Design the sequence.
């Protein structure tokens, strides 16, 4: 079940569309999104439709960095009712944990995991979407927004140790370097960023504990502030545990504080099944990883929970009707998508980073 998200996810979509020569309203209509989504940040829209819109906009304009351009001008205020609570957290760690705690109010399709390895902290992001469309633009938007959050708390001079993307690099890295500096790693095992433990625990100079308490009391009064379906929580756990080979029903149940039987019973009550969730997420991740020609197939097998390449190949053939190498080759040979229309009803032309960049 693909979640719905606040239309705030599309904040400044129209402005970026205009910069790259697109008619934003026409693109929204083409995807089937309610036109009000560009004006009403609290309108609920399908996360899948957001992913589709971003990819279609990038393809139509020839702008490989469409999602990242949207992230570049995001502000904390775009987090809505939770923004004041985030602003006044004592440390970066507290601010990030606030995003995790209230993701149902911010973006239920986004999973953020924080993993610590000595002095290095890995902030990993996953999108709970169907996998029917490429997710390059959606991930660049999500990672760009989290990066902006770090800078809002730690100051504009802050830099991550690395910014990581599963997908291949764009043909021009100018926008990535402008936003992140020369620290981007493409074809990575995860989407997200790394930073130091000291960054996570650095005090927030703008924090005000009194305002934070007031903000939290207000947020707690909002509908669905803490309510998430068990199926959504199980999906989150599967996304986080699969790359480390631990997405078994027992491990997922334990991560949710349940036993296997209780997890199965409660999922069934929501009309969900663990095996179906597991296989759907494995399919979605596999499509994403195999589409990235920079990731070796042997590495992909491990990322979707298979110890042996042969086991992964058999599963892939049963699901997709061919071997992963043939599927990858067929995708690479596919014809490019047809262009969309610009504001004048003509084909939108590819846009260079220099021409479209805001001054």
Sequence:
């Amino acid at each position: 079940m693909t979640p719905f998200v606040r239309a705030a996810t599309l904040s400044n979509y129209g402005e970026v569309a205009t910069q790259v020569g697109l008619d934003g309203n026409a693109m929204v209509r083409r995807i089937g999104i309610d036109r009000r989504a560009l004006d009403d940040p609290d309108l609920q829209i399908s996360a899948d439709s957001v992913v589709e819109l971003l990819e279609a906009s990038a393809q139509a304009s020839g702008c490989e960095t469409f999602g990242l351009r949207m992230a570049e001008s995001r502000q904390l205020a775009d987090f809505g009712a939770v923004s004041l609570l985030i602003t006044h957290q004592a440390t970066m760690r507290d601010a990030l944990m606030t995003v995790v705690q209230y993701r149902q109010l911010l973006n239920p399709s986004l999973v953020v995991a924080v993993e610590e390895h000595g002095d290095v902290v890995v902030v990993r992001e996953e999108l709970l979407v169907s996998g029917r469309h490429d997710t390059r633009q959606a991930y660049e938007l999500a990672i760009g927004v989290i990066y902006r959050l770090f800078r809002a708390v730690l100051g504009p001079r802050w830099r991550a140790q690395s910014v990581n993307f599963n997908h291949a690099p764009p043909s021009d890295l100018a926008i990535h370097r402008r936003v992140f500096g020369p620290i981007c790693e493409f074809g990575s095992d995860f989407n997200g960023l790394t930073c130091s433990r000291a960054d996570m625990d650095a005090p927030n100079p703008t924090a005000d504990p009194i305002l934070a308490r007031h903000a939290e009391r207000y947020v707690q009064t909002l509908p669905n502030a803490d309510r998430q379906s068990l199926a959504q929580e199980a999906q989150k756990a599967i996304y986080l545990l699969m790359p480390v080979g631990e997405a078994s029903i027992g491990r997922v149940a334990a991560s949710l504080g349940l036993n296997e039987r209780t997890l199965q019973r409660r999922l069934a009550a929501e009309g969900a099944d663990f095996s179906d969730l597991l296989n759907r997420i494995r399919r979605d991740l596999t499509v994403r990883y195999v589409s990235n020609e920079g990731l070796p197939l042997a590495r992909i097998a491990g990322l979707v929970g298979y110890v042996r390449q042969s086991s992964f190949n058999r599963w892939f053939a049963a699901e997709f009707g061919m071997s992963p190498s043939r599927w990858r080759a067929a995708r690479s040979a596919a014809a490019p998508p047809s262009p969309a229309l610009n504001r004048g009803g003509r084909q939108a032309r590819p846009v260079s980073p220099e021409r479209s960049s805001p001054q």
Notes: The mean pLDDT is 86. The chain has two domains: 65-220, 230-332.
